[in-house]
């Protein structure tokens, strides 16, 4: 192994994170590896008012590690406040990038709408809903995703909002269920997995 990336240390107090970080640094150095001091950062999450720790520093040897308000980990944007606003915006952006990459197929007037819908379900929608099963969603998040998806679907069909075609007609035309329904389905599937655990 030449390098490892995206290593996460999690603990409940800053002091214990400092201790774990030092142990991790010593372990890596004993095996001939180094820990990048310029790329190392930390995120303090306050998911509860009960944990009110006085601001302190996280250190790597003598260097102070910079604190971030959010960072990207395994494709998701994690915010210290526990909100998902940045993650929802990021997922919508990723879905649009996938949509643009596939626009040669999705905007081709010779391809049937149902086939475009299948392509959309396989390429774009997984990018939009990645990690959504464990989001604490609010109506505003669902609405943002719904608006983005409807823009994509209308564009695929060659329609605009000014054409006054109802969403239900668009969904039927391309054979795609609403993103709201798919989000609920993913969350219920995840809930089932959690409920079945011992």
From TrEMBL:
<dbReference type="InterPro" id="IPR000477">
    <property type="entry name" value="RT_dom"/>
</dbReference>
<feature type="domain" description="Reverse transcriptase">
    <location>
        <begin position="1"/>
        <end position="78"/>
    </location>
</feature>
<protein>
    <recommendedName>
        <fullName>Reverse transcriptase domain-containing protein</fullName>
    </recommendedName>
</protein>
